[in-house]
Amino acid sequence: MNEQKTKHVSKAFDNDWGSRNHVQTLVMMMATVLGIYLCYKMAVPFLAVLVWALTLAVLFSPWQKWLESKLKSPSLAASIAVVLIGLIVVIPTVFVGQQLLLQAVKGTQLIEAKLASAEWQRTLEAQPQLAPILDKIEQKLDFTGAVKTFTLWLDASAGDIVKASVVQLLGLCLIFYVLFFFLRDRHLILNSILSLSPLSQSEMVGLYGRIGDTIHATVYGTFAVASVQGFLGGLMFWWLDLPAPLLWGLIMGLLAVVPMLGAFIIWAPAAVFLAFDGDWQSALILTLWGMLVVGTIDNLLRPILVGNRLRLHTVLTFLSVVGGLLIFGGAGLILGPVTLVVTIALLEIWASRNSA
Q1: H-run or E-run covering 124
Q2: Which of 334, 296, 304 is nearest to 218 (CA)?
Q3: Is the pTM of this model over 0.85?
Q4: What does the DSSP 8-state code read for residue 262?
Q5: Greater model confidence, 244 or 210
C-alpha cells in the first residue's frame, strides 16, 4: 500500500510543471528556439544566395539526374552541371551588364543633346494645338536639367557601379558553390527535412511538389515571359534605330513583371515621340508591334510554360512578389510566392486533418 502511494506521489510530482523532467524539456525547447533564431540571423546575409541557389537547383535538377545516370558519380555530375549553368548564366550577364552601362551613357548623352538643340522646339511648332501643353510640361519637369543631372550622376557613380559589380560577382560565385551541394546532396537534404518535419511523408512529398511547381511557374511564367517581352520590345527599338535598345528592352522586361504596369509604358511614349518627330511610319510600326506582339505574347507563352503549376490567382501572385521584395529584397521574387504557397498548403493540410 505504501509502495503504491509512493508511486502515485512520484507520478504526480513528475506531472508537475516544476518537476525535473518538465524543467529539462522547457530548457531544451528554449535552447532549440534560441539556436533556430541564431541560425536564422546567420543565414539572413546569405538569404539571396541560398534562394537563388535553390532556384537553380530546382530548375536544373533534371540535368543532374541525367548526368548522374550517365556518369554514376553525383559529385562529378554536380560539378559538370554547375560549370554548364555558370556558362549559361555568367556569360550573358557580363555581356548584358557591360552593354547596359555603355548604352545608358550614350543614350542619356544623345537625349541631352536632342533636348538641348532647337529640333524639339521646331517639332512642337509643327503641332500648334499640343505645343502649349507640352511647353508647360517641359517647364514644370525640366527634362533637359533632369537628363543632365542623370548623366552627371552616372559619370560620378561609375566607380560605385564597378564596386557593386565586383560584389555581385562574388555573390554569384557563392551561389554556384552552394548550388554544387544542393545538386549533389539533394536527396540527403530532402530526407533530413522529412525526418524533422511533423508532417507525414505523403504530405511532405506534396509540399515539395508545390514548392517545385511554384519555382518553375514563377521563373518561367513570370520572368521568362517578361524577358521575352523585353527582348521583343528592345528588338524593335534596335530595328527602328532608337537609342539604347538594350537598356529600354531591359526596362520593358522589368515593367512586364508588374501586372498593373507593363512594357507599354516604354514603347507607347516612344511611339508618340516618333510621331511628334514626323516619323509616322516608325510610330505606326512600333505601336502595332507593341500591341499585337509584345502585348499578346504573354497570353501565348504563359499557358505553354506554366500550365496548371501555379495555382494562385493573379492578384495573389502580384501581392506575393511585391510583398516578398519589400520583406526579403531581391530574393523575394522567389521567396514571396513560395512562402504564400507553403502557407496555403499547410492550411489545406490542417483542413484535411480536421475534416477526417
Answers
A1: helix 119-125
A2: 334
A3: no
A4: -
A5: 210
